[in-house]
């Protein structure tokens, strides 16, 4: 595991944005296109703004969420609404947005060039929550679909999430976390028995684990 630390969350957001922008630019130069998955929630907002300001050939980039709540796109809890207000507020508005329900398009974009994930203190990533009703299917290396719908414990809306093969197959995998609580949860993940109890282990285990970006 590579741990990247910064003194402030804004500095960390810029470091991660620079990393992902370089990956996307290399992919565009190599194949003429790039595919990126990004997280929703409060934590990634500064990163999304910083990334969206990079001068890339955004028209060649396909962007999707790592997961989404099954609500209207203008709903306050919609990740798409967050992206419109952050990532797509600058030059990145030229990128193509791909809905997770569009399985055919998703399949043509795999493997992703880059995937950025958050993590909850319950050790979930994307919408792969411990105790979710279809977790076993979603975290299986044999899962045949890039995204599926599920319900998580205590969460009112149905969700749709990228599955383990899509997440773990990305060329660059990064996780963005803030604060002492998330750092303690991250340290606790290593004591879990596996991804059923700690889905974050999907991107931490193996010979090429995710880069973890953390600030206090």
- The count of DSSP E runs of length 2 or more, i.e. the number of strands, is 10
Helix amount: 25-40%
Mean pLDDT: 96
Structural class: alpha/beta
Taking strands numbered 1, 2, ... along the chain, how are they ordered across the largest sheet? 1-10-9-6-2-3-5
Order of helices and strands: EHEHEEHEHEHEEHEHHE
Description:
The chain has 216 residues and is of the alpha/beta class. The protein contains eight helices and ten strands. Strands 1-10-9-6-2-3-5 form a seven-stranded parallel sheet. Strands 4-8-7 form a three-stranded antiparallel sheet. β2, α2 (45-52) and β3 (61-65) form a beta-alpha-beta unit. The radius of gyration is 16 Å and the shape is globular. The two termini are 19 Å apart. The mean pLDDT is 96.
């Amino acid at each position: 595991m590579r741990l990247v630390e910064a003194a402030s969350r804004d500095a960390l957001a810029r470091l991660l944005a620079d990393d992902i922008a370089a990956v996307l630019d290399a992919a565009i130069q190599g194949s003429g296109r790039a595919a990126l998955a990004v997280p929703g929630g409060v934590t990634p907002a500064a990163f999304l703004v910083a990334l969206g300001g990079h001068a890339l050939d955004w028209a060649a980039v396909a962007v999707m969420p790592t997961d989404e709540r099954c609500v209207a796109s203008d709903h306050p809890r919609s990740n798409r609404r967050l992206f419109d207000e952050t990532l797509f507020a600058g030059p990145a508005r030229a990128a193509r947005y791909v809905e997770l329900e569009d399985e055919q398009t998703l399949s043509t974009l795999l493997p992703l060039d880059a995937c950025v994930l958050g993590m909850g203190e319950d050790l979930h990533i994307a919408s792969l929550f411990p105790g979710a009703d279809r977790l076993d299917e979603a975290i299986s290396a044999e899962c045949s679909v890039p995204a599926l719908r599920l319900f998580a414990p205590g969460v009112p809306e149905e969700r749709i999430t990228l599955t383990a093969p899509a997440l773990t197959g990305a060329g660059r995998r990064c996780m963005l976390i803030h604060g002492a609580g998330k750092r303690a949860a991250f340290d606790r993940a290593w004591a879990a028995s596996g991804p059923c109890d700690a889905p974050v282990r999907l991107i931490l285990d193996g010979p090429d684990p995710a880069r973890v970006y953390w600030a206090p």
